[in-house]
Model the fold of this input.
Amino acid sequence: MIYCKVEERQAPLILYRSMSLSQLVKAVEEADSSRKLFEAVQNLANARLEGAIPTLIEALSYNNPGAAVAAVDGLTLLGNPAVPALLELLDMHNYTARSWAIRALAEIGDPRGLVTLLGVATADFAFSVRRAAVKGLGLMKWHWFPDELREIAQEEALEALLFVAQQDDEWVVRYAAVVGLQALSLTIADTYPQWRSQIQEYLDQMANSEENLAVRARVWLALQHIQQNISKNIHTSSGIAAIAENKSSLTTDDWQGILNQLYEIKRQERAKNLEEGDPRRFQKLALEIQNKS
Amino acid sequence: MSEPELPDDNQLTLEQALINLQCEDLGLRIYAAWWLGRFRVKDARAIALLIEALDDEADRTEAGGYPLRRNAARALGKLNDRSAVPALIKSLDCDDFYVREAAAQSLEMLGDLACVLKLVEMLSNSTTSTISGAETEQPFDSILEALGTLGAVESIPHILPFLDYPIPRIKYAAARAMYQLSAETEIAAEYGDILIKALSNNDLQLRRTVLSDLGAIGYLGAAEAISNTMAENSLKLISLKGVLEKQIPLATPPNLTEGAVRVMALMDDLL
Done:
């Protein structure tokens, strides 16, 4: 098995820059050893070509962790163009490939992965997959969301993160949830100060109740960051403005799809607990989005 | 502490485990011994039976090993009862390599200095020149790690020769022990740096072992090297968790040392 450092993976090398896409793909197809396969996938990933997506997706199904890590990195570098293929892979019943796809989706932070990450973060049986999904909720590109959809999406992410921080059996997943809560609380500090207070209260509780020392330390750090953010009154809105040029490529249909999925989650929650979450407000939002298109 | 809380999803109860440990069925006995350790059943009767099992003659492998003794020795390390120490020290003389290894590890966990003399004797009576391949006559890595954890500074002269041992795993166990036994920070760092170099070894299995060593000693100077090691993020996170936890007592909670903040930044990136 081969693992590599991030710097190495991202370093563009002249050699494969001079190779064409078809040559790079051919090298993957013809690799006859685990080492050669890893190198070929790595070269293909580093070329950053959208045409490489199908081959990189396929590499997630090979039983070669080194190649899979390289493919995840390649797909992450390509970002949003890789998302539809990754979502498609989720529907195949190949657990290993699925877990790699979730890692890539989490790193990309594309809103189309949100509902998958919400489900995986709270329910997947492999803790490393839950860890990646929880991290993904923290890295979500919230600034892409239309305002009216962002609230529902962030509320779901908040609930999932609070649940994981409290319930997950693995320290590292709870640690990731604390990191996610910190990120989310800074993102929503301007818009939903009441959620920020909720996160703060929750972390205060965790500072006393969490039995794992490393997780507790991360809670202290998160509280420091949130407190500093309040006292300096520096909010992430400036951060959002800076990356606003990186505009969403999502279509109205995409947003409609995400909304429908969130609606479905809400409906299921409602089935479990009738008092919480009235889904009618989502129907109204769905209409608003349709009217915009 | 690093072991996750597993749900007790099998049918054994304390009473049943005590019965099974004394029954004829070798399979049930060995499972009961493992179960008592795994779920840390700190019961005086269980401990007495496990100590008794260290002398078992019924359960033998074709090669002459003692599977029940191995499991009993491992379980006793987890039950935090020093009454097991004399029997475990005696087990260090067992013919079965794996019984000796389990006994050394459990003595390390129990933290009783009574075993130091015997452990040092095992180091010094060995003939380090006649090893072949990866086989050793004694579980040197476990012995070295135990001496380091127990803070047995008097054993330093016997540990030093192992820094040149031809088997990397054992060489690094010696470096790990010397890190723990060195009173001066600068000297300890020199031994810690030996472990850092080992993180770029070509052997993935060895890199994993050293990650675990660095987590166990919590050497802050290794934090960046740990995060850059070619290995699974899960293992790097566990290693950094060990480094982080050593930083916590150095500040008054909820204050954090600069080192703790640095380590957490590395951990956040590995999630």
Remarks:
- The interface with chain B takes residues 1-5, 128, 131-132, 134-135, 169-172, 175-176, 179, 207, 213-214, 217-218, 220-221, 223-224 of chain A (CB under 8 Å).
- Residues 122 and 163 of chain A are 8 Å apart (CA to CA).
- Chain A has 17 helices and no strands.
